Amino acid sequence: MNYRLVKCFVAASTLLAVIACDEVLQQEKFLPESTGSVNQVIVVTTDTIWKGAVGDSIRKYFAAPIEASTIPEPEFTLTFLPQPIWKGAITKSRNVLYVLKDTLEASYIKKNLYARPQNIAVVKSKDLENLKNNLISVAETAKYNFRETELELAQERLLKSLSSKALFGERLGLSLRMPSVYRLGVDKDNFLWYDRPVEGGTLNLMAYSLEKGYFSDSETFVDRILSLRDSIGEKYVPGPDVPGAVTYMISERTFAPYVRPTEVGGFKAVEVKGIWEVQNYPMAGPYLMYLVNDTVNRRTVVLEGFTFAPSKPKRDFMFELEAIMKSIEITE
């Protein structure tokens, strides 16, 4: 075997791969900025597909009701676009689901094709049954890509108006990308509560820490979370003044909260989604909590966002709070 020839071939192949990769990066560099509302997905298909069984599957997987919501809201806002209209400026849309009958079988994600950041989930098949199956096969991956792109974009936007007065570093040894529009409400016992006004209500963000081992008993884990929230509410989050009644935020217990493992800021964490309500007063709304296993400082960092906005859509409000909380950076 001519090893010198093999080495030259490998070197040439590597060089070509590097050049090709650099060309792709250069092309993406000059792509225009993508467009679209927060959590919007453009569905490019035909009227027949949109109104049929495949369209039902699209709505089932991409517009399912979000968890722990007081009013029905879809995970993504779907906008139907007939395929002939898919041209020009609309091709710069950030999140796209392209579903059409074709002689080819396909189900994949194409990134940054016409703009950046951009995800185009392509689903094709020659018959409707396979088209539906191909859609199902790529749905979870597409949703993950759509959501991660929205989250990264939201966190980039937070950098444009960061608060210079946040006390997270001084009190808790961490940082969050919190906009300057948020105002300090409570600073006590290393417990911080910030809020900002929105139409008809407020967005709220709380942060504090617990000693390591607070949630060591797995059998009582969920009850421990709910009891913790109730105690924090009683101590720091009062409700409206009601003659003869004590009001404060507690955990709604009719439905169990959604609890799942995740990762936040490079640390293992637990995500909790549920409904808050007020003791002795008819008020309620969604909350999102992260229990972050801070192995650097041997503690659990608790971040919670909740929305009070009666009769208003809350999905995008909660998404803003999620973006802020997931921007956490912990220091020693």
Detail the topology: elements first, then pairings.
Layout (H helix, E strand, L loop, with lengths): L2 H27 L10 E6 L1 H5 L1 H10 L14 E6 L12 E7 L4 E6 L7 E7 L2 H31 L9 H5 L1 E2 L7 E6 L2 E8 L2 E11 L9 H16 L12 E3 L6 E7 L2 E12 L2 E14 L4 E10 L6 H11 L3 E2 L2
Parallel strand pairs: 1-2, 1-3, 3-5
Antiparallel strand pairs: 4-5, 6-15, 7-8, 8-9, 9-14, 10-12, 11-12, 12-13, 13-14
| Overall pLDDT level | 92
User: How many strand segments?
Assistant: 15
Shape: globular
CATH fold call of the largest domain: Protein Transport Mog1p, Chain A
Annotated CATH homologous superfamily of the largest domain: Mog1/PsbP, alpha/beta/alpha sandwich
Q: Structural class, please?
A: alpha+beta
CA gyration radius, whole angstroms: 24 Å
Low-confidence spans? none
Count of all domains: 2
Q: How many helices in DSSP terms?
A: 7
- Main beta sheet strand tally, sense and closure: 8 strands, antiparallel
The level-1 CATH class of the largest domain: Alpha Beta
| CATH architectural name of the largest domain | 3-Layer(aba) Sandwich
N-to-C CA distance = 57 Å
Helix content: 25-40%
DSSP strand content: 25-35%
Order of helices and strands: HEHHEEEEHHEEEEHEEEEEHE
